[in-house]
Amino acid sequence: MRKQSIVLASMALALGMTACSSDNTRNGPDVDAASAFPLEETIELEFFAQGNANAIKPFGEMQVFKDLQDKTNMTIQWTTATGPDFAEKKNLIFASGELPDAFYGTGVLSNNEVVQYGVEGLIIPLEDMIEEYAPNLHAFLEERPDIKALITAPNGHIYSLPHVNEFDPAAEASAAMFVNQDWLDQVGMDVPETTDELYEVLKAFKGADLNGNGQADEIPMSFRTRDSISGIEALTGAFGKLVTGTNRFYVEDGTVYFTPMEPEYKEYVSYVHKLYAEGLIDPEVFSQEGQVYDAKIRADERTVGVLFGWSRSVLWGQERENWDYVPIPALKGPEGHQLWPRQPGGTTVGSFAITNTNPYPELTMRWLDHVYEERTSVEHAFGPFGSHLYDTDDGKIGLHWPPEGTAEAAFRVQETPGPGAVYIIGDLIQRRPSQQEKRELVEMYAPFTPEEVYPRLMMDEEDVNRLAVLEPELFQENGYIDSQFTQWVMRGNIDAEWDAYVEQLKRMNIEEIVEIYQTNYDRLMESK
To answer: Is-contact 396 429, C-beta < 8 A?
Structure first.
């Protein structure tokens, strides 16, 4: 990655231009950005991306990117990171000033990062280049002013480009919860409907040789922490206030709450601790990566009783005979609360950004606009034509079934980053049973999802800069909120420590943070 002086970026910003416009940052062939692809001379760029834990090959070896290289004669050198390493590496990139040419992937930059680094000049405004070099994206934004407004910062600039998934209403869906039906049958119990019934089911699973292998390898319940799809945080709704999003804000009757300082959260953590203390929760929940979790729940010899995931098709393939698990509806808590989370729509703002060190920003924009072409977007979402896609008789695009023994999630990311890719997809795709299954899950949880969800809005520079100071210590991986949750689940004692914890949150300016989120939410609601 090229070393870029933060001072130069600030000077360029002060002069009202981007650093990429300086001849000093350009190197390599002099290429006309308006010329047709493929370029006569090869251009090489460096992208940083969030990897996919299920992917079986590096991005540069995936067919969709190899095809794009053939079309453009632009070679991308990829640096990827997954899991806890992703945020750490991204932070190091900005701290060191050694920027890639672009950031790529669904939500690779948070909305706050987009505004912060855009105003600082580290990523460049794109609105003029969209009109001149991105006809596919420009046409889409002309048709969708709502999405154009969503990606436009309060200062009027567009610093990042979106990932848009309008293929399925499930784009707003969150996790689903499943229980092994065979194990339920063996212990003579029904699908739990309350948190108390879930506790009894897990106790019945513990210590019983339900997979019949003669080993005590049964895990009553497993999940991952800080994961909206395979995490347990969906159960917060049974205690009255949901944890939604990485910052855990919840909206009710126009009021923004920080759930981890509400009494309902204490009851939720106490419940999870009870499960952990009695050996009903997988002891690896605080450390297991996605690949470990997926391998554990997909093993032919079932070892997990209750788990969280997207759908049975994604977890275990299309063959229904492999579906040993049935969905658990939104559980009712001790006080009768029954809520289930949903996501704020299918558009993710900070999914592609061009840095001020990029010597060919116009060509980079044209490269991405090829991805936004309708059929190419579908390939980047689901895989190449031939192996993964086919044209149907009714003019739509069909999805091939995964080979026998291959789960849909793993099949999807063989030749593309899949859900982590950058694309715009609508209704061109012919839905198959897996999408129908997810739709049914969405409909099952829909009566219990909140009407209000904190949106992925963009705040102004002052609020972003303030949050950049206040939030990391609280919200980063293994920060104060995470570490307290882990400690309380593992050793308990939340009742004795709760008041001191709330006071510490206040000392860490949580009330000011909530006020910022409330003010921006109110502003958005007033503009509608």
So the answer is: yes
